Amino acid sequence: MIRPFRVGIAGLGTVGASVIQILDRQNRTVAQRGGRPVQVVGVSARDRAKDRGFDLSRFTWFDDPLALARSEEVDCVVELIGGADGTAHEVVRTALSLGKHVVTANKALLAKHGSALASLAEEKGVSLAFEASVAGGIPVIKTLREALPGNRVSRLYGILNGTCNYILSRMELEGLTFAECLKDAQRLGYAEADPTFDVEGFDTAHKLAILTSLAFGSKIDAEAIYVEGISSIAPLDLAMAHELGFRIKLLGVAERTETGIEQRVHPTMVPKTSSIAQVMGVTNAVTIDADAVKELTLIGPGAGGDATASAVVADIADVAGGKAGTTFGRPVADLEAAPRAPMQRHEGGYYIRLTVHDRPGVAAGVATRMAEADISLESILQKRSEMAATKDPHGRSGAPVPLVLITYAATEASIRSALDKISRDGLIAEPPQVIRIERE
Amino acid sequence: MIRPFRVGIAGLGTVGASVIQILDRQNRTVAQRGGRPVQVVGVSARDRAKDRGFDLSRFTWFDDPLALARSEEVDCVVELIGGADGTAHEVVRTALSLGKHVVTANKALLAKHGSALASLAEEKGVSLAFEASVAGGIPVIKTLREALPGNRVSRLYGILNGTCNYILSRMELEGLTFAECLKDAQRLGYAEADPTFDVEGFDTAHKLAILTSLAFGSKIDAEAIYVEGISSIAPLDLAMAHELGFRIKLLGVAERTETGIEQRVHPTMVPKTSSIAQVMGVTNAVTIDADAVKELTLIGPGAGGDATASAVVADIADVAGGKAGTTFGRPVADLEAAPRAPMQRHEGGYYIRLTVHDRPGVAAGVATRMAEADISLESILQKRSEMAATKDPHGRSGAPVPLVLITYAATEASIRSALDKISRDGLIAEPPQVIRIERE
Predict the structure, then answer these.
(1) Which domains, from first to last, does chain A contain?
(2) Contact, B287 vs B297, CB < 8 A?
(3) How far is B16 from chain A (nearest CA, A)?
(4) What is the 3-state secondary structure (H, E, C) of A165-230?
(5) Which residues contact A52 (CB under 8 A, 6 or more apart)?
(6) B207 catalytic, yes or no?
(7) pLDDT tens column, B77-117
(8) Which of this chain's residues are annotated to bind NADP(+) (chains A, B) (predicted)?
(9) Order of strands across the sheet with B101-104?
(10) How far apart are CA B357 and CA B422, in angstroms?
């Protein structure tokens, strides 16, 4: 008889509990894929007494997750504790050091310590697998690591945070404000009490850092990522996007440019007809542009206990069967320290919403500053409110009105410089809203 | 030094040529993934003199692909000849019998001989990989085989034939007839001179047979598939679909039902808001419904030399690294001979377009027959042409007019029985158009 592959699970939240239940119900399929039976032997969590809906007595209980990581009973530690440092980091490092495989869903850990942990895994000849760390149940890690060796990836972009996509979807469909939708997201459990990590783009940035490394064969470089969240998006921006044929999504984008690898997280205008624009609610999606395969899009659940556990279980089966390969799809020594492309050099289309004083010459003044910075405009939309239009014979109220510009490809630096001048000219009443456009 | 993994390529059409070029340019990445260098050592094709844009002199030339399959120089045979039987089958069988790995893009071969070849591969301890056989560059084989062991799949459906999707997309967007779009597809090289295989759904059926086996762990059973093509689709159906909030796609659908596994290929009404409805032109897509991951959709190029070669190269790297696993994700002995769910037992919504005689009582007669068969109607649309409406005070011309019914879930048998009666009642002037509805 083949010796079973013995798994220890550190962290029994919704994902951990679901991993146990899935391994029970899919035992045969997992064994077929892994080439041997998979057996959970030990578990560790904060609260032993908590009702998880199933019996824990058949597993060895560890009060200390580090003891589980050190246990000789365990071939593979599944780390579901979370956090870039502290216990999670120690558990993973300990397990790898002792020659145990590790499966984790911990994006923060990977984004911060990925290269060091991959080196350790390599040195010890064990696997470090992390499909569940990005985009929940979508097999995007496997796709980037295994399905595209024949491709040179030029760009990837994704909706990697369900909270943000839920908020933007509801703002768009119901004309609500960011604050209203955030409150609902919190009520439904889609957002944390402190939502900063999600809505300000940091969660997306961690995930993007991991995908970038896999896609470009580069060392993880989370600090290089330009990050902007969605809290500044106004219902008016969504209405304008609709009118202009776009939707607004919080994207993580990684792109190979002439200066290096550009990594950025920001609200983005995407064409309404693109695959990624169709992705609404808490769903995640990733599009990969590559030379041979052209465009590949994967859409699925980005979170949730079962979907994340599905990814964990796939990793366990791969590791049990010796099929996980190197952590980032190549030896750590082969990962390049790719030059960072600075955000100021980013080139693309821009949506710019100015709140201008409603008086003669303002549009001309704005257009002149744009022209001076060598920025070509694809369209200009001025919206005058109906109330304002009744105030004087020219329809001017003197009150600030929105002026929306769509530019052709321009650099971030030139856009920023033009907007500074427009601001100094006294043409605008509020800081400008700037949303980058990403085309297919 | 590690011995290179020696590949022989049988068939040098656009895919074969692209495999050689990709292995040249991505050599390092493929070696990193495969754990050793990959080297094309031999090639075989019909015409040695043909200009393929690169030099063949560095490879051993085989006039006879069987000689290549037998060559001791070769560790892995890449079969790109095509066809369910004849040379392709012999090449694959010979290579496997001699303990060589096989990578193939041949869906017809797999659909017909998949189980037997998988047994042979298993017996000889070698891999048989076929990512390129379904949906070109989309890693759907890998996803079903490796990413979902924690899932019980309930349904999968896909746009698996680019020719059909191109034709339906153009019919919809430009209001053209099937014949007009087919001609364009042929001119652009998207359709063969004899398009039967594509437009009548047989190509989709081969691919569906393969996906079904992977998704449900069942033996390939291509003969169980109900197949209907797109040649009967009229511009009026697309216009009605639009009005009713649907798009028409040729789908391959495999579903676990109470009676067994249902496999069917037919034009299908899908909700306009679904991910799969967004897929236009020659692009392919597959959606997988499963218990843990809920819904997963993969979208990408279904054909083309480079996209298909991308899948072939990924297989080569997996096989070189010993990571391909068993052919269908489990030992052949574990594949179930799942009961076939007969089409008559299919249950779902239906779009029915009748061409009825325009006289009193016809709509009532139709509705009565539907009610007798226990079919509930979600909507009824009667379109009377403007010309007809001028003929008499009641707007009736006596000439046949379309009457469209959308049903709630009903069985194929009850629909067929009701339509037979309606036909025998003399209510319709033409055979009915029936299009099944597939909801998310």
Answers:
(1) 5-133 (3.40.50.720), 147-301 (3.30.360.10), 346-437 (3.30.70.260)
(2) yes
(3) 13
(4) HHHHHHHHHHCCCHHHHHHHHHHCCCCCCCCHHHHCCHHHHHHHHHHHHHHHCECCCHHHCEECCC
(5) A12, A17
(6) yes
(7) 999 999 999 999 999 999 999 999 999 999 999 999 999 99
(8) 10-17
(9) B60-62, B38-44, B5-10, B76-79, B101-104, B128-129
(10) 12
- With contact defined as beta carbons under 8 Å apart, do A54 and A20 qualify? yes
Residue B101: DSSP 8-state = E
pLDDT in tens, B309-318: 999 999 999 9
Q: Is the dihedral of CA A189, A192, A193, A196 positive or negative?
A: negative
Q: What is the pLDDT of residues A373-413, one digit of tens each?
A: 999 999 999 876 554 445 555 656 668 999 999 999 999 99
Does B313 belong to an annotated binding site? no
One-letter amino acid at A426 equals G
Q: Which of B32, B147, B299 sits opposite A331 (nearest CB)?
A: B32
**Three-state SS for B188?**
coil
What 3-state class would DSSP assign to B70? helix
Question: In 3D, which of B63, B66, B14, B11 has the Cα closest to residue B40?
Answer: B11
Each residue of B255-272: b (16+ CB within 10 Å) or e? bbeeebbbbbbbbbbbee
pLDDT at B63 over 80: yes
**How far, in whole angstroms, is CA A214 from its chain's centroid?**
14
Q: B234, B275, B235, B217: which is closest to B251 by C-alpha?
A: B275
Any residues with CB less than 8 A from the CB of B154 and at least 6 apart, and which? B255, B256, B289, B290, B291
ipTM value for the complex = 0.95
**Measured between CB atoms, does A440 come within 8 Å of chain B?**
no
The packing angle between helices A107-124 and A86-97, to 10°, is: 10
Query: B300 and A300 in contact by Cβ < 8 A?
Result: no
Alpha carbon separation from A191 to A187, A188, A307, A373, B111 (Å, rounded) = 8, 8, 17, 41, 46
Length of chain A: 440
Binding residues of A: 10-17, 107, 192
As given in the structure block, the two tokens for residue A353 are 């919403």
Let me know: does A80 contact A309? Beta carbons within 8 Å: no
> Annotation-wise, does B366 bind a ligand?
no
